[in-house]
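ok so I'm stuck.
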Amino acid sequence: MNRKTTRISGKYCGKSMRYSAILALSASLLASPALAEVEWDISGFGTLGAVISDSYAHYQREIDDGGTLLRDSLVGGQVDVKFNDKWSATAQVMLAAATDEDDQLAPQLKWTLVSYRPSNDWLIRAGRMSLGGLLNQQNMDVGVSYDMLRLPNEVYAVSQLYDFDGLSVAKTWNTTDYEITLDVSGGFQTRDYRSYRAGSDEPFFYEADIWGSGLVLTVTDYDQKTLRLGWHYNRVKPDAPGFLDKLNFVPLGDGRYTFSPATYEDTANFNTLFLGLRFPLQEFMVTMELTYVDSGGSDIAPPNLSGYLNVARKFGNWTPYVTYAQMYSFDDDPLNKVRGATPMPIPGLTQSDIDNLYTSIAYYDQQSVMLGTSYAFTPKQKLKGEIMFTHVGDRSAMFDELIENEIVSVYSLAYCFMF
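replied:
not stuck anymore, here's the structure
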């Protein structure tokens, strides 16, 4: 199948220069005699993962019946510098699947920041951070830190929306039984978006500027119980031609209809609500998360609700688990109207154009069951295996191709490590 990539506006040179500048700055800091007395901690992490499905349809970009190493594999390094009890800095570089091109690896920066702790109950951070409200938002790339082979994409597909260059202010209250933290954050990012055009049989990428702010409340019992509530606001401005807001249909007088030019807006506003809960239940560990995403009524991105429930139990070094995940978009009217539209050769609307638009709509109707286990060789090394069954209803934008009412089986194996 043709997998050539179309890109609308790119900044490959700019990104390379940015990475080079940061690496050069890091090298100069390491060589600085003035910093010889500070505390340094250098660590690394990575995942080598292989995955294959029983379907030709590309799932989560890379997964299909040809198999791939790109979906889960990554390697990263991190430098933590502690200047004194109040000031510290972190720099993290990761090599993983590119966000602006298929079938490529690229360097990424997620954590590059300065931290200031004026007292034990206040923490101020400035720089590049991951600011969302998911339970594993800050450690999702470190596969050894959780037992699931991969975090459910039904929920964690939105995680990159919350990587920002910005500011975070966190206040902590400690009681006899609980630690309560409120984190207020805001920032900016330029992010790559990917969509797939089934009519043209190719993916395409575009960039968008995103301004975001968030509020996250975390409550823990100093041990295993965690409750997290969050809200995040994103204002998205695509580079061109804008954000498709409304699809306009023209009746043909015989019960059929076609399209007129769509309505585009310069920006789109997204609100996300988070709920996460982790707690022990006798010998089991239960984890559940819910997210609700609302784009303010846009036809191209209907509001959706997603969530998962994971139940795991340890048996020595083994931790088998079962996960159920579901993602559902509430408004299927735009999708159904596009599917039923009539091509009109005179104004230039072809069936290929209709298929392109149909697969561009971020509509999700899918549910997954994952059966897996991890084996911990040491606290810093894990081997994981998983079988996942994903049922697609009317349509799921996680699949490139036009499949519906179908079950896709996915088989995964991964080795995760830290050092």
